[in-house]
DNA sequence: TAGGCCATCTGGTCCT
DNA sequence: AGGACCAGATGGCCTA
C-alpha cells in the first residue's frame, strides 16, 4: 500500500473523524491526497460542529485494525478484527485535540531551536552571509569540512593557505556554495578548476552526499571515503569541534584515542570547561594570491566561473591578511556586504562566546 | 514548470 | 501519562 494510502487509512481509522466526515456529506472535512485541510493547529480545526458526535457521550465500540477488510466498503459493515477501540467521545476528542495542539507547539519550538543552532553554526563557518544563507545540508557539510580541514592543519601542519585546505573546505559542497566559499576565501588561480573537478565527480554510494535531501548529483559523501583526491579521510567520528578547540587536552594523543562522538552523546557529553582556547590563527585563511595575468585568469578561471564569483580580487588591491584586510576586500570587491570578517572568521573570543551559548543551552 | 528547500503536522517509539 | 525525538507527508515559496 502506498504511504498516502496508509495515511488516509490511518486518519480515517479515527472514529471521530470518520464520524465527522460523514456528517459533512463529504464536503471538505478532510482533503485527502493533499495536505489535510486543517487549521493552524491541525486536527484541532476540524471535527467541530457535528451534532451527532455531541450526542454520543456514551462510548461506542467498533473494531479496527484489519487493513484488508472493510475499509473500501462504504455500505457494508466492515469486517474488522483486532483490538477494539473506543470511539472518540466529545471529551476524548477534546483531549486529543489539546494534546495534539501541545505536541505541535512543542515540535515547532524544537525545530526552531534546531534552526537557531544551525544559524549559530552558520555564523562560525568560514563563509557567512545573511543574504546568501547556506542551506541546512550545506551548513552541515561545510561545518564537517571545516572541522576536518582545521584538524588536518593541526595534525599535519598543513598550511591553511594551501589549496588542500580549500579543497577540503569545498569537498562535496554544491557549486553555488563552493563559489560562495571561494568568494569568501579569495581563492587562488588554480582553485576553481579544482572545485569544478570536485563537483564533476560522480555521486558516491556512501554517506549523505549522494543526493540526499534532493541535492543534485555531484556531491561527495561526507562520510566514508574521499576517493581520487589523495586526501585522507576526514577524521569524522574521531574528532569533534570541541576537541579541536581544546586541542591542548589531546596534545600528543592520536586521533584513535580521542573520545568518539559516542562518548559525547546526550548522556555522556563532557562538560564544557570554560572559555575555549583560540582555535587557530584563522586570519591566515584570508588568502592573498598573486594577481594572475588576464591570460592566466581566463585560463584558470573560465569566464563562466568568474562571473559566478562575487568578484575576483586583484591582490594588488588586497588588504592585509586577517579580518581587517578581509573587510577591506569585501567592500572593495563587491562581496555581499553582509559577508564580513567577523562573521566569516569570528575572532576567538566570539567563537568562545558562541560556543559557550551552545554549551549552556 | 520542475526541483530544491523549508515549515509544519502527524503518528510512532522510547524514555522518565 | 507526557515529553523528546524522529521520519514521513504535504504544501508553499523561490529560482533556474
UniProtKB/TrEMBL annotation:
InterPro entries: bHLH_dom (IPR011598), bHLH_transcription_factors (IPR050359), HLH_DNA-bd_sf (IPR036638), NeuroD_DUF (IPR022575). CDD domains: bHLH_TS_NeuroD4_ATOH3. Pfam families: HLH (PF00010), Neuro_bHLH (PF12533). GO terms for cellular component: nucleus. Residues 1-108, 254-276 are annotated as: Disordered. Residues 51-75 have a biased composition (Acidic residues). Residues 98-150 form the BHLH domain. GO terms for biological process: axon development; camera-type eye development; positive regulation of transcription by RNA polymerase II. It comes from the Eukaryota. Keywords: Developmental protein, Differentiation, DNA-binding, Neurogenesis, Nucleus, Transcription, Transcription regulation. The keyword DNA-binding applies. GO terms for molecular function: DNA-binding transcription factor activity, RNA polymerase II-specific; E-box binding; protein dimerization activity. Residues 80-90 have a biased composition (Basic residues). Efficient DNA binding requires dimerization with another bHLH protein. This is Neurogenic differentiation factor 4-like. It comes from Salvelinus namaycush (Lake trout).
